[in-house]
Amino acid sequence: MSTSTRGTIGKFALLSMTFAAVYSFNNIINNNIEIGLSSAPMFFLATLFYFVPFCLIVAEFVSLNKNSEAGVYAWVKSSLGGRWAFITAYTYWFVNLFFFTSLLPRIIAYASYAFLGFEYIFTPLTTAVLSTLLFAVATHVSNNGAKLLGPITSLTSSLMLLLTLSYILLSGGALIGGIEPADPITIEAMTPTFNWAFLGVITWIFMAAGGAESVAVYVNDIKGGHKSFVKVIIIGALYSVGSILANVFVPREVLKFTGGSVQVFEGMARHFGLSEIIMNRFVGIVSFTAMLGSLLMWTATPVKIFFSEIPKGIFGEKTVALNKEGVPVRAAWIQFLIVIPLMFIPTLASDTVQDLMSTIINMTAAASMLPPLFIMIAYLNLRLKLDHLERDFRMGSRLTGITIVSILIGIFTVGFFASTFPTGADIMTIIFYNVGGIVIFLGYAWWKYNKYEQSLSKEERIEESKPAIQ
C-alpha cells in the first residue's frame, strides 16, 4: 500500500493568499477620508490585535473540525449547536448584500475613469439605478458561469498590488526628495481621537482586515503551522505605510469614496510629469476589471456556499435547486431583489454620491462585525465549556484564549453599536436602514430556523441543539 505525503504551503504562498483575500488599496482611501492619517496606526493595531488572533481562533476551529470541510457552519455548530451555526452562516451571506451596495457605485466610477479618463459625477438616484442594472447583468452572467473571470481577476489583482507597491515606493521617494506633502505627516495627525465617531469608523478598519477566515483554514498545510500566521502582520504594515503616504500628492478633503484610488495616482503622475489621463485610464481599467470580476464572483459564490452548507429543509427545494453551473439561480435572484431596496433607501437621505457611499460603507462595516462576533462567541463557549475536546492546536492556555477572545468581543460590540448609530447621521436612515435592516434580516433567519426546528422530531431537535463535537 502506498502512502502520500500532504503538500505544504510556503510562507510566501501564505502571504500571497492573504494579500488576495484581505488587502485592498480602496480600504486605505476610505479610512483616510474618514479619519485621515490616524488610520495608519489603527491599521497596524487592528492587524496585530484582531487579524492575527482571529486567524488563530479560526485555526483552532479548523483543528477541532479536521475531518470536515471546516466551513463557518461546522465551526460554530461544534461549539454552539445548529441554531447558532445557521445564524452565523446566514450573517456571512447577509453581510454580502451590503457589500454589493458599496461595490457597485465604485465599479461605475472606475468605468468612467477607464473609458473617459475622469469620473463622471451622477446623482445618488442615478447611481442607484445604474447599480441596479449592473447587478442584474452580473447576476445573469454569474448564474450562467463565468469561468474566464478567474485568470482576468488574478491578473488585475496582481497589477493592483504592483500599483500599490509602486505608489508606496514613488511617494516615499518623493518625500525623501523633499516634496511638501499635501497634508502634513505629523505625530499629531496620526494620533487617534477616541470618541464615538472614531469608534464607529474603527469597524471600517476591521472590515478591511476581513478575509482572515478564508486564509486560516490552511493552517494544517502551512510550513511552520500556526506560528507562520504571525507573519501576516506585514498586511497591517502595508496598510499602515499606505495610509501614511495617502496624502502626499492629494489632500484628504478632495478624495472621494468612489474614485479616490485613481485620484492619488493622478496626483503622483502630475508630480512626476507623467500623463494624468493615461494614468487615470490605466488605473481605471485595472480597478474596473478587478472589481467587476469580484462582483461576478461574489454574486454567485456566497449564495452557493450558504445554501449548500446549511441543513436541507430550512429553505424550499426550488430555492436551493442548482443549475448546470452549480448555482442556486432562484436564490441568486432573490438576493438581487433584496439588494435593490438596500441600494435605494440611503439615496433618500443623501445629497451627493459621497454621502451615499459614506452611509452604505458604514452599514457594510457594521454588518461585517456580526459574523466574526458570532465566531468569537462560539470560541468563548469552546474554551469555557468544551475545552476538553481533542484538537491539535490551541491558542494558548484556556485562560489566555478566554482573555483574548473576551477583549475582542468587547471591542467588536462597542464598534458595532458605534457604527450602527453614527454621529451626525439622519435619524430616519439609522432607524429604517441601520437598525431596521439588521432586525429584519436576523429576525427572518430566526423565524426560518424555528420553522425548520418544528419539522424535526423531539429527538432530532435535542440532537440539533447540541454541539456537533462532544
From TrEMBL:
Signal peptide per UniProt: none
Cross-referenced InterPro entries: AA/rel_permease1, APC_superfamily
GO MF term set: transmembrane transporter activity
Presence of keyword Zinc-finger: no
Subcellular location field: Cell membrane
Keywords: Cell membrane, Membrane, Transmembrane, Transmembrane helix, Transport
GO cellular component terms given for this protein: plasma membrane
Transmembrane segments: 12-29, 41-63, 84-104, 110-136, 148-176, 196-217, 229-250, 282-307, 327-348, 360-380, 401-421, 427-447
Entry membrane topology: Multi-pass membrane protein
Protein name: Amino acid permease
